[in-house]
Design brief:
By secondary structure, the protein is α+β, with helices and mostly antiparallel strands. It folds into two domains: 33 residues; 164 residues, Glutaredoxin (3-Layer(aba) Sandwich), CATH 3.40.30.10. Helices cover 37% and strands 27% of the residues. A six-stranded mixed beta sheet has the order 1-10-9-4-5-6. Strand 2 and strand 3 form a beta hairpin. The longest helix is centred in the first third of the chain and has 27 residues. The protein starts with 5 loop residues before the first helix and ends with a helix. The relative contact order is 0.19. About 3% of the residues have low confidence.
């Protein structure tokens, strides 16, 4: 019987030690990896202003009702000719891309046109895109503090030649509120659905 030379045993142990260190280092990097988000990050995140508005049948809805879920919050109106339907179509794609994880995400669509958009009408509108989306409205007095809290601009523009009578020019930012109720990310109009989906999947890990 021949015993393994001491130099070979030492070399083997050194090699195994280096391999173990490399494995531990890679594991540590993966555990501490900071996700890269594609939206605009609130750094640090800030508490999303709570609000009380109404959905079908006058049922009260509070933003805080969705604590534990990710909320995608958008402000628009049902007779919007372009921006709102485009954004809702993007959110429909995002929602479909989430699969079963969509149950952990809630889309809220708040009107900027309470004169025409009662709760039933807003819900009917958003349901056309995805039944799980929630449309919200309320009185002008209830909505104004919400618009102000989220920096929403709203300008009424007369349109005598249009059957609608007027258009509402409004800000187009999409807000992502995390599971703890914090404003975490926002997106400009035209953000691809795959970017929003990427960020949601990161947050849902």
């Amino acid at each position: 019987m021949f015993s393994e030379p001491a130099s070979e045993r030492t070399f083997l142990w050194v090699g195994l030690s280096i391999l173990l260190i490399l494995v531990l280092a890679i594991g540590l990097v993966l555990l501490t990896r900071q996700p890269t988000y594609r939206g605009v990050l609130y750094d640090p995140p800030v508490a999303a202003p709570d609000f009380t508005l109404y959905t079908v049948g006058g049922r009260e809805v509070h933003l805080s009702d969705f604590r534990g879920k990710i909320v995608l919050l958008f402000f628009g109106y049902t007779t919007c000719p372009d921006i709102c339907p485009t954004t809702l179509a993007v959110l429909r794609q995002v929602y479909a891309g989430l699969g079963k994880a969509a149950e952990h995400v809630q889309v809220l669509y708040v009107t900027v046109d309470p004169e025409r958009d009662n709760p039933d009408r807003v819900q009917e509108y958003v349901s056309f895109f995805q039944p799980a989306f929630l449309g919200l409205s309320g009185s002008l007095e209830a909505l104004e503090p919400v618009w102000q809290a989220y920096g929403v601009t709203r300008i009424i523009e007369p349109a005598p030649a249009s059957a609608a009578g007027y258009f509402v020019t409004h800000s187009t930012r999409l807000y992502l509120i995390d599971q703890e109720g914090q404003l975490f990310l926002s997106y400009s109009y035209g953000t691809p659905p795959e970017d929003i989906l990427h960020d949601l999947q990161e947050l849902l890990k």
